[in-house]
């Protein structure tokens, strides 16, 4: 069973894909853990930025085309087609997803499309393979109230964090390591169920 981290937001262009990648790389290289990074973004932004131009798992193609190892991280691309969101999941594709999730990952990081709900079939399947479920909700000042409401609609996460971003991420300060370490170091017996708002500089 894995520790799963869901990176979520209500706005695009807020740094969600970049955070997902940097978080995955940080865990893999600094913590020496086996990481699966799932690109569940409708535009496949993360995959494209990393040069993963293969077909997505939900597009109905071979798993070898959608699962790639880049920078010591395994990246699973789910789609090439924007319209494959909540309404196109067949049993064979979901079975392939379960096969990938069953491969003893220490961490599963999920970069999600804007406004995804907890009832999404992909989310529900990842939950099945998760011993600990963490939600990181990215927000700016203008969307903080709506992001807080959005986070409240996610009822089955073991802990939730809102990261309030006040400037674009840069390569030298993609995430506050203190905040991220606090999130990663929570023990299974120490679930943090209170609502957390952290502000990046």
TrEMBL record:
SUPFAM superfamilies per record: P-loop containing nucleoside triphosphate hydrolases
InterPro entries hit by this protein: CobQ/CobB/MinD/ParA_Nub-bd_dom, P-loop_NTPase
Source superkingdom: Archaea
All copies of domain CobQ/CobB/MinD/ParA nucleotide binding, residue ranges: 5-93
The protein, known as: CobQ/CobB/MinD/ParA nucleotide binding domain-containing protein
Organism of origin: Saccharolobus islandicus (strain REY15A)
